[in-house]
Specification:
The chain contains 16 helices and four strands. It binds heme C (HEC) (2 copies).
């Protein structure tokens, strides 16, 4: 249960699960039902761990993480294309609520073409590391990257802050949360300016160097505040109450599954949490352990993979000026900071990607980091045959072995994966701001 969220949402979730709590079935009756459905007690414990959506993990690196006004401000920023370099791309361009906060493309197109598939931003507050390669350690730090990234929004912090300052509603919201915006007089501050993260130089980074260091620091702090508001917003994007969750709750009450969870889905769950071994990586409430693996997905262009994945991501997050250990973090000694400090990269990380959450998965095609597969049937066929899988020779980790599933079992796994779509706990945040 998500106790940190607003009471009405909690109520909706509880009500959605069914009737008022009844007396528990006798242990014998429950054991009998589980046997009838084909689950051993150990396997059912695994299933239970997948069904319970827990409290949101706190984010003390963002002191406004759970502030509703900050979330409302972030909501406006998320949908505002004026923050991009060309004025046409917002976060919602690639994370569109109509497509479950993805873009439906193989790889994203912003101001230019990305190399990766856009994951949903629903339930991202549960991830320890953000993005496929885990190159950000908080939602607020992650949000700052696409804004200035050359392929996504191609903006710069100076122009972005001027846009906020010029809009009466945005500037009022900013100032009530964070105080006055920095003065950006045109005789002291160029039209466009930002530092480059990769150490390279261009016109905008040269322009940044002309700004007085005190003012640079104030501009960057204000930019970080926008990230913290967007982080607060995205924390409110949680989905729950999927047919799978209801099925588990029903079985716990001693009831047989209803139409929303047909026998085929039960068989799929049995494979998923048992013989097919999916649970080894897709475990826990978001159906991911959060670990990085190379499962040998063949590159779209053919040949050997060129995307280094976690190997690059681990270095980026350690060097990120906005990580939990940095001067903009509100908790530089906490768990998140310790995790970044103790992170050790190794060549073995080459080609690994974060195991994705499978909540909402039937709505977020195409799949895998490069959008390699168009449907869940294709994904399951891959796990079954491992056709075309690439294995990097330096990897200690051996890739999966082919499951050789029957057509029927493949269909059952797909049917199970289709029961993981829930609904947003706070619908007003899952639509553009009114
Ligand atoms: C051009 C399309 C595009 C735009 C615009 C964009 N994103 Fe993304 N987003 C992506 C892609 C692609 C990824 C995966 C990046 C990767 O792994 O390299 C991603 C990843 C993410 C993630 C991590 C999700 C996860 O599962 O770890 C979050 C959160 C996110 N974006 C939020 C935002 C916010 C906030 C904005 C606006 C400030 C934004 N995005 C703008 C395409 C986009
Ligand atoms: C060794 C760990 C591991 C096992 C076992 C595993 N997966 Fe995955 N899964 C991953 C990783 C890692 C990715 C992302 C790979 C990439 O993009 O390169 C992934 C991706 C997926 C995706 C795509 C999700 C998306 O949003 O793109 C689905 C669906 C999926 N797995 C389902 C399954 C099923 C079903 C099984 C069992 C048959 C399974 N997985 C077994 C690690 C695993």
């Amino acid at each position: 249960m998500i106790r940190q969220l607003a009471a009405p949402a909690l109520l909706a979730f509880a009500v959605g699960c069914g009737e008022p709590p009844e007396s528990k079935p006798s242990p014998e009756a429950r054991a009998e039902l589980l046997e009838e459905l084909g689950f051993s007690p150990g396997q059912w414990r695994r299933v239970l761990s997948m069904a319970e959506v827990p409290d949101l993990p706190p984010d003390p690196t963002n002191r406004l993480a759970d502030d509703t006004m900050a979330a409302e401000f972030g909501h406006h920023l998320f949908f505002d294309p004026r923050l991009s370099g060309n004025g046409r791309v917002s976060c919602a361009t690639c994370h569109d609520p109509a497509l479950d906060f993805t873009d439906g493309r193989r790889v994203s197109i912003g101001v230019s073409e990305n190399i990766r598939n856009a994951p949903t931003v629903l339930n991202t507050a549960y991830h320890r590391w953000l993005t496929w390669d885990g190159r950000a350690d908080s939602l607020w730090a992650q949000a700052l990257e696409p804004l200035e990234n050359d392929v996504e929004m191609g903006g710069d912090r100076v122009a972005i802050l001027r846009t906020v300052a010029a809009d009466p509603e945005l500037s009022a919201r900013y100032e009530s949360l964070f105080g006055p915006l920095p003065e950006l007089a045109s005789d002291r501050v160029p039209e466009h300016a930002r530092p480059r993260r990769d150490g390279g130089r261009d016109e905008w980074s040269d322009a940044w160097e002309t700004i007085d260091p005190d003012l640079q620091a104030r501009i960057t702090s204000a930019f970080v505040n926008l990230g913290k508001a967007m982080g607060a917003y995205q924390r409110r994007l949680v989905s729950a109450d999927a047919p799978f969750d209801r099925f588990v709750a029903a079985v716990e009450r001693g009831e047989r599954p209803g139409e929303a969870f047909p026998a085929e889905a039960v068989r799929g769950l049995d494979l998923f949490s048992g013989d097919a071994g999916c649970w080894e990586c897709h475990a826990g409430p978001m159906l991911t352990t959060g670990a990085f693996h190379d499962i040998g997905i063949p590159p779209v262009a053919g040949g050997m993979p060129t995307d280094a994945g976690r190997f690059t991501g681990a270095d980026i997050v350690k060097a990120d000026p906005f990580n939990a250990t940095g001067s903009h973090s509100d908790d530089r000694e906490g768990v998140r900071a310790r995790l970044v400090r103790s992170l050790v990269n190794s060549p073995d990380n080459w080609g690994r990607f974060r195991t994705p959450s499978l909540r909402e998965v039937s709505r977020t095609a195409p799949y895998m980091h490069e959008g390699r597969f168009g449907s869940l049937a294709d994904v399951v066929r891959f796990y079954s045959t491992l056709e075309g899988a690439v294995q990097l020779d330096h990897h200690q980790e051996t890739v999966l072995s082919p499951l050789d599933l029957t057509e029927q079992d493949q269909a059952a796994l797909v049917r199970f994966l289709q029961t993981l779509d829930g609904r947003p706990l706070e619908p007003r945040f899952a639509a553009p701001p009114s």
